[in-house]
Amino acid sequence: LIVIDFGTAITFDCVNGEPAYVGGTIHPGIGISLDALASRTAKLPRLDIDVTPDHPIGTTTVKAIHSGALYGFGGLVDRMVEVLSRQLTPNQEQARTIATGGMAGLIKPYTKTIDEIDQQLTLTGLQLIYRLNCKGREEDTLA
Length: 143
Prior knowledge:
5 strands; 5-stranded mixed beta sheet; alpha/beta; Nucleotidyltransferase, domain 5
């Protein structure tokens, strides 16, 4: 299993079949990348990703930035899933992938490798950990 979290950073967390966490990777997030592009270049504007490009090749500066961000981060996802899957599940074609975080739904159409989006994954995981830690305690109040 590979969990991709699109937050301030983009993280790829790998879980093996036991299941046990085995490690992951951390990348600059989409917002950080767009901020850096605007602050480190003389004339490129700071944009939010609020439109879907018609084509991968942008015909204006704004369209080129949108296209670069969406297709570029989609490509990052596909490549990282490919590389991590080879190590995590060498006998399978691709590990199962779940994406979460604010930009997951926006990036999914630009990837081939995200199997599922679960915006509640972090909260569900925290709830599960809480329940496991409270197992056997009478004061377990979480329904």
